[in-house]
TrEMBL record:
<protein>
    <submittedName>
        <fullName>Aminotransferase class I/II-fold pyridoxal phosphate-dependent enzyme</fullName>
    </submittedName>
</protein>
<dbReference type="InterPro" id="IPR015421">
    <property type="entry name" value="PyrdxlP-dep_Trfase_major"/>
</dbReference>
<dbReference type="GO" id="GO:0016212">
    <property type="term" value="F:kynurenine-oxoglutarate transaminase activity"/>
</dbReference>
<dbReference type="GO" id="GO:0030170">
    <property type="term" value="F:pyridoxal phosphate binding"/>
</dbReference>
<dbReference type="InterPro" id="IPR015422">
    <property type="entry name" value="PyrdxlP-dep_Trfase_small"/>
</dbReference>
<comment type="similarity">
    <text>Belongs to the class-I pyridoxal-phosphate-dependent aminotransferase family.</text>
</comment>
<dbReference type="Pfam" id="PF00155">
    <property type="entry name" value="Aminotran_1_2"/>
</dbReference>
<keyword id="KW-0032">Aminotransferase</keyword>
<keyword id="KW-0808">Transferase</keyword>
<feature type="domain" description="Aminotransferase class I/classII large">
    <location>
        <begin position="24"/>
        <end position="372"/>
    </location>
</feature>
<keyword id="KW-0663">Pyridoxal phosphate</keyword>
<dbReference type="GO" id="GO:0005737">
    <property type="term" value="C:cytoplasm"/>
</dbReference>
<dbReference type="InterPro" id="IPR051326">
    <property type="entry name" value="Kynurenine-oxoglutarate_AT"/>
</dbReference>
<dbReference type="InterPro" id="IPR015424">
    <property type="entry name" value="PyrdxlP-dep_Trfase"/>
</dbReference>
<dbReference type="InterPro" id="IPR004839">
    <property type="entry name" value="Aminotransferase_I/II_large"/>
</dbReference>
């Protein structure tokens, strides 16, 4: 008997497999196809010949923990304690899974805001807890009235994602004010803040939960070096949480992976001395603008993109097909893979919207846009 009877193969896997079968340009899965910074690969090459291949401490490489603390201090004015409040994880997904497994109990309720990334629900179900899906507004801002109405005495956690995948929406100060008002009414609710695209924002500066002192004692922050430094295959992320929560999270972490890839941790620790995270957004804003300009003459309507490396587009003026069928047709007939937005909703809500990943080199984006403009 399956513990996850309603969870099937990920839409990202399905679309990437189809893209490979039809030799289509893959703008579906969120991974860059351009080279990693040579400074980083040089560090890795040097470490490969050194004694960097054995277990590191369970919580993470101590110099890396110190540099994460410094990064958070420079970025948000908060200084988490390296030895007590920071945990290096095997990617953000493992961090999310670990935090939920450690802190959510049977019959607890966990609020998930739709459209939502697909890794949130499964760990909730594996806790024998209850996912409560609440849709965002049509402009993808949080509907605080609905969120408040969904909160009960059984609510253990609210999962937030800012900048938001799949829509690229970012939160306003008023959104955090509304969240904090709910937390005052429900003092037992924890917040899991997925901020893996924190350094990929554009015209509006990212507002992090790190900057909200009122909720820090109840908040688990999720970050990703894989996303920030476009090394998604390394699967290196980190959690930051108050010590009383981190104690429980580490209990689960040690039996999932114990410790994370040693060379990758040491390499990132050294690389952080050579790179500025402020440069990351500039690179992606150029890619976003380049891709949007290429599609100006197409029949797609592009929605605003405030962060992440995803562009949501409406195909309503092109076809009446549902978004899953339309994405399959994009692959088979036009040679471009995208992700249907309905798959991010529990109720498969279909607004005829699809998601493109623009974390690709210019040649790839130009060819994809050429094909899309023919539709």
């Amino acid at each position: 008997m399956s513990k996850l009877p309603n969870i099937t193969t990920s839409i990202f896997t399905v679309m990437s497999k189809m893209a490979a079968e039809y030799n289509a340009i893959n703008l579906s899965q969120g991974f860059p196809n351009f080279p990693v910074d040579q400074k980083l690969t040089t560090i890795v090459g040097q470490l490969a010949t050194q004694n960097s291949h054995q277990y590191l401490p369970m919580a993470g490489y101590p110099p890396l923990l110190n540099k994460i603390s410094l990064l958070i201090q420079k970025s948000y004015g908060r200084t988490p304690l390296p030895e007590n409040e920071i945990l290096v994880t095997a990617g953000a997904t493992q961090g999310i899974f670990t935090a939920i497994q450690a802190l959510v109990e049977s019959k607890d309720e966990v609020i998930i805001l739709d459209p939502s990334y697909d890794c949130y629900e499964a760990p909730v179900l594996l806790c024998n807890a209850i996912p409560v899906r609440v849709s965002l507004n049509d402009d993808y801002t949080p509907n605080w009235k609905k969120i408040e109405q969904a909160c009960t005495a059984q609510t253990k956690m609210i999962i937030i994602n800012n900048p938001h995948n799949p829509t690229g929406k970012t939160w306003e100060l008023s959104d955090f004010d509304a969240l904090e008002n709910i937390l005052v009414q429900f003092p037992n609710i924890l917040v899991l803040s997925d901020e893996v695209y924190e350094f990929i924002t554009f015209e509006k500066k990212h507002i992090s939960a790190h900057s909200r002192t009122a909720i820090l004692n109840r908040c688990i922050m999720v970050s990703s070096f894989g996303k920030s430094f476009h090394v998604t295959g390394w699967k290196i992320g980190y959690l930051i949480a108050p010590e009383h929560l981190m104690i429980e999270i580490k209990k689960v972490h040690q039996f999932l992976v114990f410790s994370v890839n040693s060379i990758c941790q040491i390499a990132i620790s050294e690389y952080l001395d050579l790179v500025s995270v402020e440069e990351i957004s500039q690179m992606y804003i150029e890619k976003r603008n380049y891709f949007r300009n290429l599609l100006k003459g197409s029949r797609f309507e592009l929605l605003p993109c405030e962060g992440t490396y995803f562009q949501v587009a409406s195909y309503a003026s092109i076809s009446n097909e549902n978004d899953v069928d339309f994405c399959k047709k994009l692959i088979t007939d036009y040679g471009v893979a995208a992700i249907p937005i309905s798959t991010f909703y529990e109720n498969k809500k279909d607004h005829q919207l699809i998601r493109f990943c623009f974390a690709k080199d210019d040649i790839t984006l130009a060819e994809a846009a050429k094909r899309l403009s023919k539709i």
